[in-house]
Every structure is written in structure tokens, then in C-alpha cells.
Write a structure and sequence with these properties.
Chain lengths: 782, 159
């Protein structure tokens, strides 16, 4: 039996649901497993052009001369975009709501390049080969500028200024100082931080660093743009944010929103990387100029260097604990490297504090400072975990350090200090997404149970502190985690339902399934609310012409927020069903309820199908619909406790993760199989990040390992014995008690493995990734 | 140049540039289930069976396929008549975004045709060349075990 099969049963008994909480098959999975589902690149349009990118080979330079004459003579080359012939409208590629918290520091193609991989030109041709030949024939002369690759050097006086252009500006009132390479600056402080520090004898002060990484969705970023018969621009894109894409393309190309349609087909993974609006306006412009379909995709190398990455950070955490084990002060200071563009520069910084510091919630003082620096390296952006991954590392290692100093079990230190139901945190109010935060009381928290059940599953008591001097040393470590569920007062989602002849419904949602299974989750919520089988919910998602608005698939928002929109839309349809049914069975609406696809009164009942046939064909004809939006005042955190058991080879520094337990409180898991899948995928991604995924840069700012050979991601061989425990809680603000699940579990492996290595060897790893050479050096230094 | 080979059981003859890769030939023939993830044989999304062996179709030049037998994901099952391995991937929750799934299933298919009762290590070896970023592989392993049991007839075929 798979682990925790009993979960659905527990839930069924407690909530009496018929589809929510069940392990139903993902509704699109058979089409995917038979190779029939269409991704962006899986259509071929007659007369389609193929476009390729020319990217900068120099980290910082002005383009002194750009000659496309030879390229234009290449047979088959049809159109070339350069900085000389595109609109220069400042924007951010971040793919966020409006107005964006990320600075407008980008124009479509610029006369200055700021990193190796920066887009210089786009060539569209009859064939890919001709486009590549065209790229080779473009003659670019660069006037090199001094480059800066270290975020602290970039912030120091006298550093080369990366965004010296006049257009770079923040569009919301936040500190933004491109004149000193400062893309964001965040600060808050509550309570007497320095006083507590000075008066304490148990002070801890450690420096940490955590690195850049690539999302590595197996589907590369791809766009196909074409014009419909009315000349409207249709953009078919592997995007997480179709509605933001429409708005941003309209802005950049100076086209009205109503002239643009964005369609998201099946998506081959996103993880934050496809929140960026990079290719859409370029492909759109070519299609508008040539009046032909065009296909523009990144190569795998370009995905590494021209798309976006996780923000590397250098963090310093000062903390104070009293002898009784109460942590009284936390002071986290971090410098982020946002690379050459400030995409998510502010909000990843704030989330490094807001999604981490509230975990330890008995403090009398807490302070957070984050400065985000521009450098001449590949731009950072949204990446699953979104700052919480970076911040969870110092907090969890330092908890382990403090527990060790106090000679108490770190689980007890967590139990004593953790946030719990009914509590709030000053951090929630202080840190928002570009604005002040939102005060929030925790309504559901299963962290204590996550700790207990996770510890039991890993064998904590029998395996902890069994350090030996053997060559192969084993140890266990843990990490406590939180995330959020949507961005409060910013994100919104909407859903529409329409009733068909046979009592089935079409569910139209702006929510964007990236492969996560959100179409299935949303269908389950509709089926649950309407008391119909899952197969009677036909989902269509993410098409700006057809589906209602949704801010998109990011910030762990879809189940919580889009799910709530679907629940409310189902209620709306229920009201309409009852209104018609009341006339049909002559009973008062107040006496009616939905049951098994019928509206039942005290005496009689009528099927949805009968209601539909009457309302579509027979009497007072109307299309019965349900419509609703959801917007959140809160971002209830999911919680998790992760445990890893590692084996460290003292002679080589190689770490092997033997087993891994992720105990997660995501409220009610609408579909436990999918919730486990999100957790397992995030954990393995996190293990790769902890152990070997790393950008290797040469002294000129060039990535040396821009392929899956050089940049290894976990294969099936890297899978440890993995156990996921879903700890049920009920979140009263979420649909059927649900919170988010998608991001949280990528945050665990870095700290849990670091702490396990200490347990095994007595050596602390403060600098990720824990590659064999780094670990060997750390072991040798003792 | 003209290239003749067997595709999903049927003889085909098609025009292809001598430098074209098999993945491109298949996709030009409308078989879009073979995915293109890296172009350098590192991710396994384009795996097809050539004479029964799983191979990265982005590394095979079209002329080399002359006279050989190719099976793609479309050749082993359909939405209305899926192969048991496809069904077990669905049931186990082994399909998330699904972009790696066709290659993964074909690699599993090749394994199970020759090794009906694979060990964990045999599954790992067979699927090691297929990268998946979504699932963490846990449910993929479960799916292969379940498919193996079903193909051996250990449990009832429910279809």
C-alpha cells in the first residue's frame, strides 16, 4: 500500500466529500501518456517562419555597429529584429500583476548588452537552418564596458553602472537606485534587536551563501505567433501567465489589448521560469510585421543563459536564544544577485524574510534587511520557493546550531518556538509584495504533527547523533518550512461554468495548468460542489479570448485561489439550478439541495439534465451559468517538516541521500496523489540543487556548463527512499479546507542535508551547493 | 532523399534532408508525441524504439533509419485503446506535465518487453537516460512496477 493511503479515508469520514480528497486520475494524463496532447510546439501552421535568437557573447558592452546586410541576403531570411527597428517601451519581463513590483529596466532590444546571453537580434526565416545562417551573418561590433560579477562589488562605490539608461524606473513607490546597481532595498525591524543581542550570552552569528539555478523544465520556452483572419495577433505560448502576457505584449508593442489573444496549450513544466515574458513580444512583432505565423523557441543552452534563474544570495543570520530554549531575536541580512535585470528583484527579497522568519515566533525582536544588486550575469527571476528556499537555509541550520549549543534536540527547539494556530507574526504585516504586508492570523497549522510524524518515519531517535569516524558516516537532519497560498490583496482568479443538455458542465478558468494537475484539482472542486461525477466536468483553461481572468500560476495560488473561484462559481450555478428546479417541482428554493446530479426537494427531485433540457429548449429558455471571482485577504501558509538521512564519504566528500521524508500540511489535499507528486518533484529538485546543480561561470561571465551534461539535474538514479506524509488540517479560508502545496517542498533539502551532514561528521556546511569538492574541503579543514 | 522504413507497423516512404534528424522526420509526419527537449541526447524526451531498442531520435540522422523499424508513443496505444503501461502511468500519478512521458513510457516498454519482472536497479538503469523535472520519479517507479505486474498477468487486466 502506498504511504498514507488512509488519508483519503480519514478525510472522507471527517468532511463527507465524494471527490475532494480522492486519488482520482489526472484528467489530462491519458492524452499525455499516449502522446496526443498538444504542447506549444506541437502544431504546424502552413507558411510558418522559424526564428532564432542572436545573443551577446560579451557581458557588458554598447553595440557600436550592427550590420544585417549580409544576413538579409541569406536565402530564406525574411525579417530581422534589432534594436534599430523595434519599439523602445520600458517594461519588466517579470510577468506580474499591474503595476509590477519589478522595475521597468528592459526594452525589447537595446543598444547595450548587459550579460552573456542578452538578446541582440532575432532572425525569422523560411527554415530553421536559414535563420541560423542569418544569425551567423549578422555583424555586430561591441564596445566593451567594465563588467561586475559580484553583487557586493556591484553595490560598492565606483562599480560599473549596469542600468545607466534614463528609462530604468520603478513603477511603484519603492527604493530603486540603478545609479548604484541597487535593484531593491528592503528593511524592517521590530523590537530592540541590538539590545537583546548585547545583553545575551548565547549569541549566534553565521554567514551563508546559496546559489543560482535553472528551472530546467524539460519543455523549452516556446512561442508560436500568428494572425487570425481579422489580423488579430494570436500568441500560443508556454507561459504561466497568459493574461499578464497579453497585457505586457500589448504594452511593449503598443497594440490594444483587444487585438491580442494568448493561448496556453499543455505546458511542459514551468517552476517559475515561464512566468517571464521574453519571447512573446518578439514573436508577436515578427508576425505583425510579416503577417505570417512564426515559431520562436529557445535552445537548451539559451534556456540556461537567456531565460531566468534563481536569485543567489549571501545571507548573514544573527540570533539569540535564552538558556531555556526560547529564540528571542532573529536578524537576517541578505544580498541578492538579480543579474542584469531586476525581474522579481524586490519580491524574492521580501519573501526571503516573509516566508521564513515567522516560523520562529516567540521572538521579542526581529529584523530583516535585503539588498538586491544588479550584476552582469544571467538575470534572476521567479523560481519555485521564491526566496523561501534561500531563507530557509540559514534559519534551519542556525536552529540546528543553537540546539547543538544548548545540547537539546532540535525538534524540541522547533516545538518550543514554532508558530501555531491562532498566532500572528509582525513579519506578515511588515513584508508584502512591494507594499506593506497584510496582517494574518494562522488558522491552520499542522507543523507539530509534521515534526512528530516525520521524525518517526525517518527513525530520528535511533539514527540521530550516532556520529562515527568511519569513512562512510551517516546522519540525519531536519528542516521546518512554510510558504504562502497566493499573494494577498493582489492575486485574483475567476471561473465560469455553463450547463449542458446532459447535466455536464463546461468549466472555464484562467488558471494555468503547467503540468501540476490544476485542471484536475479545479474539476474536482466543481464536481464536489455540484455533486456530479468528475467526468461530467469539461475543463478549458487559460485562453484570454475564452476563459475568465486569472493572475496566473505562481505564488502557490491556483488550488487556494482559483479553487475558491471555482467553488463560488459552482455555488452560483447551484443557485440557478435551484431557481429553475423550484418551478419544475413546485417547491420553495429554501427546501432544495443538490444531490447526485439532481436538485432535490422534500417531495420530488429533478436531474440537472432535465433542468438543462427545459432551460435550453422548452420554457423561459436561458443558458444556465455560474460565474465568480476570488480574491484573498490572506495567504495561509502550508507548513512542512523535512527529514533527510545522508551518508558522507569522508575521503571523497560525496554525499548520498539515503532516505528522505517530507511531512507536509497543505490543509485538505484535494487530490492526495497530486499533492504527493508536487512534494516528490519539489524534493528531488531540491536535492539536485543542494548537491550538484550549479552555474559554473568563467571570469568573463560566461556559463561554462549550459547543457544537461554540464549542468546535471537529478535522474531516476538520484532518487532516495522517499516518503511523503500528508498531515491533514483544515484551512477555513480555502476551498474545502485546502492550502497550497506546489512550492514549499523545494525549500527543505538544502538545510535538511546540511544538518544531516553535521550530524554525520560534525562539520557544518554553510555554503551551497554541497558538491564533493566543497564538502571534502570542509571536512579537511577540521 | 527518399527514406523507407517501418513506422508503427506500417511501411512508410518519405522525403527528408540527409541532415535531418529522426525526431524532425517523425514530427513532420505529424507524430508530435516524440518531444524535443535538448537536441543533444541528454534528456530522453525524444526516445523512440528503433528495432525494439530505446534511442534518442535527436541523435539519429534520417538516412540511418532506412530499412529499420521505428515505434513511437503513438504506436503503442491510443486514448481509446491505451497500452497497459500508459494506463499504469496514469493510475500511479506518474504523469505531471507529460513532456517526458512518451520517452519514459517507451523506455519502460523496451525494458518490460525483455525483462518482465525487473528489479529496482533494472528499472533505474532502463530509465536513467530520461529526465523528468516534475515527478521526482517516485510514481514513475511505481508505475513501471505496476505495469510489469499487470503484463505478467499477476493482477487482473481491468481494461
Amino acid at each position: 500500500m502506498p504511504p498514507h493511503e488512509d488519508y483519503a479515508e480519514t478525510l472522507m469520514m471527517s468532511r463527507n466529500t465524494h471527490i475532494v480528497g480522492k486519488r482520482v486520475d489526472k484528467i489530462d494524463s491519458l492524452g499525455l501518456a499516449t502522446g496526443r496532447a498538444y504542447f506549444t510546439d506541437d502544431i504546424y501552421i502552413h507558411d510558418m517562419l522559424h526564428a532564432r535568437l542572436l545573443t551577446s557573447p560579451i557581458a557588458h558592452a554598447r553595440i557600436s555597429h550592427l550590420d544585417t546586410a549580409s544576413a538579409e541576403c541569406v536565402p530564406g531570411v525574411v525579417h530581422i529584429l534589432t534594436h534599430e527597428n523595434v519599439p523602445h517601451i520600458p517594461y519588466t519581463t517579470a510577468g506580474q500583476g499591474f503595476p509590477e513590483p519589478s522595475p521597468y529596466d528592459t526594452i525589447l532590444l537595446d543598444s547595450k548588452v548587459r550579460y552573456i546571453g542578452d538578446i541582440v537580434a532575432v532572425v525569422a526565416a523560411e527554415t530553421e537552418e536559414a535563420a541560423e545562417e542569418g544569425i551567423r551573418k549578422i555583424n555586430v561590433e561591441y564596445g566593451p564596458l567594465p563588467a561586475v560579477f559580484d553583487p557586493e562589488d556591484a553595490l560598492a562605490p565606483g562599480a560599473p553602472i549596469i542600468h545607466d539608461e534614463e528609462y530604468a524606473k520603478a513603477v511603484i513607490p519603492v527604493p530603486y537606485h540603478p545609479e548604484c546597481n541597487m535593484a531593491a532595498d528592503v528593511y524592517f525591524s521590530v523590537g530592540p534587536v541590538e539590545q537583546i543581542w548585547d545583553e545575551s550570552s548565547l549569541q549566534f552569528d553565521h554567514a551563508y551563501s546559496i546559489h543560482r539555478a535553472s528551472h530546467c523544465a524539460i519543455e523549452r520556452h516556446t512561442v508560436i505567433a500568428y494572425l487570425d483572419p481579422d489580423g488579430r495577433l494570436i500568441i500560443r505560448s508556454s507561459t504561466q501567465v497568459p493574461f499578464h502576457a497579453r497585457r505586457i505584449v500589448a504594452h511593449v508593442l503598443e497594440e490594444p489589448v483587444h487585438r491580442i489573444r494568448v493561448i496556453k496549450p499543455r505546458i511542459g513544466g514551468g517552476f517559475g521560469g515561464k512566468q517571464e515574458i521574453i519571447l512573446e513580444p518578439l514573436a508577436g512583432l515578427i508576425s505583425l510585421r510579416t503577417e505570417r505565423p512564426v515559431r520562436l523557441g529557445m535552445t537548451r543552452n539559451e534556456v540556461f543563459t537567456t531565460s531566468r534563474t534563481r536569485h543567489p544570495q549571501r545571507l548573514r543570520l544573527r540570533s539569540v536564544v535564552d538558556p531555556g530554549g526560547v529564540v528571542s531575536m532573529l536578524d537576517l541580512d541578505t544580498v541578492l544577485d538579480t543579474g542584469a535585470n531586476g525581474s522579481h528583484a524586490l519580491t524574492v527579497a521580501t519573501n526571503t524574510g516573509s516566508k521564513v522568519l515567522p516560523l520562529v515566533n516567540k521572538v521579542k525582536a526581529v529584523r530583516f534587511r535585503a539588498r538586491t544588486a544588479y550584476t552582469n550575469l544571467p538575470p534572476s527571476g521567479a523560481y519555485r520557493g521564491y526566496g523561501a528556499t534561500q531563507g530557509a537555509f540559514p534559519l534551519n541550520v542556525q536552529m540546528d546550531v543553537m540546539a547543538d549549543a544548548l545540547k537539546i534536540d532540535v525538534l524540541d527547539l522547533w516545538r518550543k518556538n514554532r508558530i501555531q494556530t491562532g498566532e500572528s507574526s509582525p513579519v506578515f504585516e511588515a513584508l508584502g509584495e512591494g507594499t506593506e504586508g497584510v496582517s494574518m492570523e494562522i488558522r491552520s497549522c499542522g507543523l507539530d504533527t509534521c515534526i512528530s510524524r516525520g521524525a518517526e518515519a525517518i527513525g530520528w531517535k535511533s539514527k540521530r547523533r550516532k556520529r562515527s569516524d568511519d569513512r562512510f558516516a551517516r546522519g540525519v537532519g531536519m528542516a521546518a518550512l512554510m510558504q504562502g497560498s497566493s499573494i494577498p490583496r493582489i492575486d485574483m482568479a475567476a471561473a465560469s461554468l455553463k450547463l449542458n443538455d446532459d447535466g455536464s458542465v463546461n468549466l472555464l478558468v484562467g488558471a494555468t495548468d503547467l503540468g501540476t494537475g490544476s485542471d484536475t484539482i479545479l474539476a474536482q472542486i466543481a464536481a464536489e460542489s455540484l455533486t456530479i461525477p468528475l467526468r461530467k466536468v469539461i475543463v478549458y483553461s487559460s485562453d484570454t479570448d475564452i476563459t475568465p481572468f486569472d493572475t496566473g500560476a505562481y505564488a502557490s495560488s491556483t488550488t487556494y485561489l482559483s479553487g475558491e473561484a471555482v467553488r463560488r462559481a459552482s455555488e452560483d450555478l447551484s443557485r440557478n439550478l435551484k431557481r429553475v428546479a423550484a418551478e419544475m417541482i413546485n417547491e420553495p428554493i429554501a427546501a432544495l439541495r443538490l444531490k447526485d446530479g439532481h436538485v432535490a426537494g422534500n417531495e420530488r427531485s429533478v436531474s440537472f439534465s432535465a433542468i438543462a433540457l427545459r432551460s435550453l429548449y422548452q420554457e423561459s429558455q436561458e443558458q444556465l451559468c455560474g460565474n465568480a471571482s476570488a480574491y484573498s485577504e490572506q495567504s495561509p501558509p502550508p507548513f512542512a517538516a523535512h527529514f533527510s538521512e545522508v551518508e558522507v564519504d569522508r575521503e571523497t566528500g560525496v554525499i548520498t541521500v539515503i532516505s528522505y521524508v517530507a511531512a507536509v500540511d497543505c490543509g485538505v489535499a484535494i487530490n492526495p496523489s497530486l499533492a504527493e507528486g508536487q512534494t516528490e518533484g519539489a524534493v528531488i529538485n531540491g536535492i539536485g540543487y543542494a548537491l550538484f546543480e550549479e552555474y559554473l561561470m568563467d571570469p568573463n561571465g560566461r556559463m561554462r556548463n549550459d547543457s544537461f551534461v554540464g549542468y546535471r539535474i537529478p535522474s531516476i538514479r538520484d532518487l532516495p527512499a522517499m516518503k511523503t506524509i500528508l498531515v491533514p488540517t483544515y484551512e477555513p479560508t480555502g476551498p474545502y479546507g485546502a492550502k497550497s502545496i506546489s512550492e514549499i517542498s523545494i525549500n527543505g533539502p538544502v538545510p535538511a542535508i546540511s544538518n544531516a551532514v553535521f550530524d554525520a561528521t560534525g562539520v557544518r556546511l554553510y555554503h551551497a551547493p554541497f558538491t564533493a569538492d566543497r564538502v571534502w574541503k570542509a571536512l579537511s579543514a577540521t | 532523399m527518399k527514406i523507407a522504413f517501418t513506422l508503427n507497423g506500417a511501411a512508410v516512404e518519405t522525403d527528408a534532408h540527409p541532415g535531418a534528424r529522426l525526431v524532425d522526420v517523425l514530427r513532420m509526419l505529424g507524430l508530435m508525441g516524440t518531444k524535443y527537449g535538448c537536441g543533444t541526447g541528454e534528456c530522453g524526451a525524444c526516445v523512440v524504439l528503433v528495432d525494439g531498442k530505446p534511442m534518442n531520435s535527436c541523435l539519429i540522422l534520417a538516412p540511418h533509419i532506412e530499412g529499420h523499424e521505428v515505434i513511437t508513443i503513438e504506436g503503442i496505444g491510443t486514448p481509446l485503446n491505451p497500452h497497459p503501461i500508459q494506463e499504469e502511468f496514469v493510475k500511479a500519478g506518474a504523469v505531471q506535465c507529460g513532456f517526458c512521458t512518451p520517452g519514459m513510457i517507451l523506455a519502460a516498454y523496451a525494458l518490460l518487453m525483455n525483462t518482465p519482472d525487473p528489479t529496482q536497479e533494472e528499472i533505474v538503469s532502463a530509465l536513467d537516460g530520461n529526465l523528468c523535472r516534475c515527478t521526482g520519479y517516485v510514481k514513475i517507479v511505481e508505475a513501471v512496477h505496476a505495469a510489469a505486474r499487470r503484463l505478467r498477468g499477476d493482477i487482473d487486466d481491468e481494461s
